[in-house]
Sequence to fold (225 residues):
Amino acid sequence: MFTVYGLAGRVVSGDIEQLARSDAVQALARVRAAAAVGRGAEVAGAALQPVQAGLTSQSEARPVVVRQALAQYEGAPDREHPLSRVRAVMSSPAFCLSGGMSIDEAWQALQRRGLGQAPVLSADGRLIGLLLRGELLPPSLMGSADLPNPWHWQHLLTETVEQHMLSPVPGASPQTSLRQLARLLLDLRLPGLPVVDEAGGVTGFVSRSDLLKALAHEPPLDLWG
Fold:
């Protein structure tokens, strides 16, 4: 189960198929696909076409090895293992940012903790977005003749997190299956997702690194559940 949150609060809840029909999630997918094209990322050139039909149609844009792996997950038998749900691998508590923080404050806070992203909360503690540190300085601009003047960065640092975060953004529940989580991360090209309770409060964060650590140190990890 996933729930999408934005500045106005809860947008939509449901499984990954229901999210694929959500205008908010499709809009986020288009943004992520466009960003991937700008970075020259893998499969980026093919990503913009299938996204118009929803997340589920993006399977054709994935590398062959990814499609084969997901096909195995989809067709695998239904069986339970100790590590089959998000709650088993998530990091908790999660470090969160405030939407009113400056980019300078947020950047330094993430850097001190060695984090590349963090959920963004409203003043009353609700999830409203996700800030990705790497996207504040797009790699496509590095070494480019179009690199903005220094005043651009000085101005950027004074702007707020709310102005640069991804929103609306999905949040996973602790009961979400790891297979569905992995699928959504692939579809949206996100490094991780917040884990939220029913009130929209952030109880943890699960990243691709958390999944890899679980594979390496906490076997068995069940992506079929």
Notes: Strands lie at 2-6, 9-14, 97-98, 117-121, 127-132, 169-172, 192-196, 202-207.
